[in-house]
Amino acid sequence: MAEELVLYTNPMSRGRIARWMLEEAGTPYRTELLGFGEPMKSPAYRAINPMGKVPAIVHGQTVVTECAAICAYLADAFPKAELAPALSDRGAYYRWLFFAAGPLEAAVSNKALGLVVPPEREMMIGYGSYSIVLDTLEQALSGRDFIAGGRFTAADVYVGSHLQWGLQFGSIEKRPAFETYAARLAERPAAQRASALDDAAAAQMKSPG
User: Fold this and answer.
1) Which of 60, 167, 187, 205 could staple 3 via S-S, CB 3.0–4.6 A?
2) Across all residues in the chain, what is the average pLDDT?
């Protein structure tokens, strides 16, 4: 019997990334919706994720948090979906997963908060500057359909989610390479299913009933 897979999420959070990845993996899963505040800080949920944040997945006895880790784990746990390259060809795949989880996330978050690294301090911070991060990602996406090789992978779920969110809310500059890539990924059936499920969940959580 297959191990149960549970997604702990909130539809207005990074949990949308994990939902999209689960839909791409094509495996059955159960969803537990958590409100912000007390539900995520409860002892029961903190036993799963001590950070008190979503998303998290529980697959049998395995707990995985952090969106990039969830994407990588699901790609390996469900290989029939072919969401990870062969082990011998994972250089770019790992590179861009960790780039988005590190430099991209930090640079975009700091910009959204109005935090600017002084030029003389750029060597002290992992991403250097916001413009360097975006230039690097733009170069990686220019002239190719996917971030890590010739086909769609879990790295596209993660990088693509960052770009879609950033372009929508203005925390990432609108550049042709970004907009073309984000629009292409939004057309994927799994992305559309995930979005519809999360939109319905958001409406459910807002409903007074």
Assistant:
1) 60
2) 95
